[in-house]
Amino acid sequence: MIGCLAASLLGTATVSQVRAEDDSPQDLAALLAKVKITEAQAMVIAQVVVTNGSFQASSLEDENGTPVWTFDFTTPGTTAITQVKVDAITGNVVPEDQTGGNDAAGPDAQDGP
Question: pTM of the entire structure?
Fold first, then answer.
């Protein structure tokens, strides 16, 4: 049901992952209701930031009550993952993170500047 809700609210066929504080249907619905920028629109914005990267994964996350699209890209010639975050309300880019290896959520992940 949440997938259908996400697709109808976001105007996209799929959402890779949607995460809220406790992942309850009410929290997910509240997060999705705030979204103004679709996943596709946010992807275009993220691709401007990482011009030579290859898309790996995306998710919609709740960051202190603000929905944020997160995109992971790999860069040719490295094993680093570049993470681009786009505010799902304003479309503004949130400072990007880089991690070593192939796991963006690994122990080397950084939370902002």
Answer: 0.68
